[in-house]
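Reopening this one. Same input as before:
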Amino acid sequence: MEKLEIEITADTSKFKKNLNSAKDDIAGFKERAKSDTAIELSVKIAKLKADLQNVRKLMKEDIPRSVQIELSAKSELLKRDVTQAGRELTNFLRTGQKDVSVLGNMFSGI
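Same output, byte for byte:
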């Protein structure tokens, strides 16, 4: 019986480059997460969520219909604001700018 030898080689330079790029992205993410802007955005989200919770509690009380409608509208606006603030925080953590998403960043040079 003859022995069969197979030699396999792989070019890992592209993998290493991508791995180093990912490490840089993670380091940037951690740095941005500790920044004043990230903290301010997080506090803004927490405040909006607390306001929304208070409005929802008020809506459960026995109040006139007109007040309930006003609170319902305010609740919807607060939900929208919480979502927007969350987007801003996510954008900032990922790109360093609260108004630019990752996708927007990809197409900014076009």
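So the earlier flakiness isn't reproducible anymore. For the record, The mean pLDDT is 87.
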